[in-house]
Amino acid sequence: MDMAAQHPTAALLLCEVVMEILSWVPAKPLTRFKLVCKSWNSIISHPHFVKLHLHRSPKNAILLFTRAQALTLGEEEKQSLVLSSVESFIQNPSSSLDAQENRHSLHVEDWVSGSCNGLVCVADILFHSNDDICDIWFRLWNPLTGFVSVNTPCLRANVHNSFGFGYDESSDSYKVVTVIPDSSGTVTAHVYSFRDGSWKTINSLPAFLFYAEDNNGHFIGGTLNWLGLRNPRGDDYDWADVTLDMLMIVSFDLKSDTHKQILLPKGIDEMPREEPILGVWGNRLYLLHDYNNTHFIAWQMKEFGDENSWTQLLKISFHHLGVETLFPEFIFENGNIFMLRGRHCFEEVFYDRRDNSVKRINNLANNSYFIAFDYVESLVQPC
After folding, report:
1. Radius of gyration of the chain from Cα atoms?
2. Collapsing DSSP states into helix, strand and coil, what is residue 36?
3. Phi then psi for 311, rounded to 5 degrees?
4. According to the model, what pLDDT value does residue 2 have?
5. Using CA atoms, how far apart are residues 343 and 348, in angstroms rounded to an integer?
6. d(Cα 191, Cα 177) in Å, to the nearest integer?
7. Which of 56, 24, 45 is nearest to 145 (CA)?
8. Could you tell me which of 160, 125, 115 has the C-alpha nearest to residue 330?
């Protein structure tokens, strides 16, 4: 048998073996492995490999968007994005936030509207002299590879808007959604596909108002989800006037551009004293709120979209947490660790339900506040 005739098959087999091995390597080393040789660069850059690697990547990091306050008069406010593993952040939050090697600078006007598959969606917002109007541009950014997309066409909107960012697997497209309610109660969604490079308008959303403290849409299962108020009167509200029947979850499907409403857990029988929030970890949706200003409660939707799968995951007293009142912020480790913020100071409380332990950190953000996103390092660079 002619050995030369076997060379193409042998080369193909070797390529598949190399691809299989490299697909289990963390994303950061792979950016250096591309320099080893042309064949490795070709393998690592191939869209099939990028998707395979993403599928096999563990979600072992969080994305921290921080906006530091100016400490002295006249000092310019600074913003940055920090990457840290969950383990490192929980063990030493302050050091993780201060680590320069994982810090990326942002413009003062930038706002992180979401993270998905290693991509960060950044909104550049220009406010007009009329405080109710702003211009918004969006871009995608991969902090690991340095990839930055071109800006979207400008979207003019009122300032009472909310962003959401996610991935439509059916069209292999990353999309950003801007939801804009007006004073009459009408809600409009503007959807931009980075693959198609175009905006489209959806006018069929129900009248609802989202919370200022929780205005990013939460991506899960191909949908973006907001917690809000049904049929609000105008574009503002007083929480003291809100009733349980006004609370709703709006879920927007990125594939069909349609929406549905998801009911809150049936076990909620009393209005929280403070606004509840949604959270996502892995493929689970969470609802976090206080009870009678004495307990913190966490609900988990075990099967996304199935309202009967809401399960009360946690009920813990403020006394046990060592606080008088608090606000939920983020969830780690499949709903096992909760990060909560004290009300009157820069204090973060970490509660681990596996061993019932409590850890408190004062002045964590060094006179700044931050927002945490679930994040995974990847090689994704969309068209």
Report:
1. 22
2. coil
3. -135, 135
4. 45
5. 10
6. 5
7. 45
8. 115
Pairing relationship of beta strands 347-352 and 208-210 according to DSSP bridges: unpaired
What do you get for the CA distance between the two ends of the chain, in Å? Answer: 45
Give the whole-angstrom CA distance, residue 83 versus residue 104.
Answer: 9
Q: Supply 358's token pair.
A: 């409590």
Angle at 344 between CA 333 and CA 287, to 5 degrees: 35
Closest CA to 92 of 372, 377, 359, 346: 359
Spatial separation of the C-alpha atoms in residues 227 and 264, rounded to whole Å = 10
Of 65, 146, 11, 52, the closest CA to residue 371 belongs to 65
58-375 classified as CATH 2.120.10.80: yes
The pLDDT-based confidence of 27 (bands split at 50, 70, 90) is very high
Lowest mean pLDDT among 6-10, 125-129, 156-160, 357-361: 6-10
Q: Can you give the length of the chain in residues?
A: 383
Mean pLDDT comparison of 64-73, 235-244, 290-299, highest-scoring range:
290-299
Q: Are 252 and 191 in contact (CB under 8 A)?
A: no
Q: Locate 22 and state its tokens.
A: 């490299």
Helical segments of the chain, H only: 3-22, 27-33, 38-45, 47-56, 86-91, 93-98, 318-321
pLDDT in tens, 79-135: 788 888 888 888 887 777 777 777 888 887 788 888 999 999 999 988 887 778 889
* Phi, then psi, of 156 in degrees rounded to 5: -95, 130
Domain boundaries, the chain: 3-52, 58-375
Quick one: which H or E segment has residue 262? Answer: strand 258-262
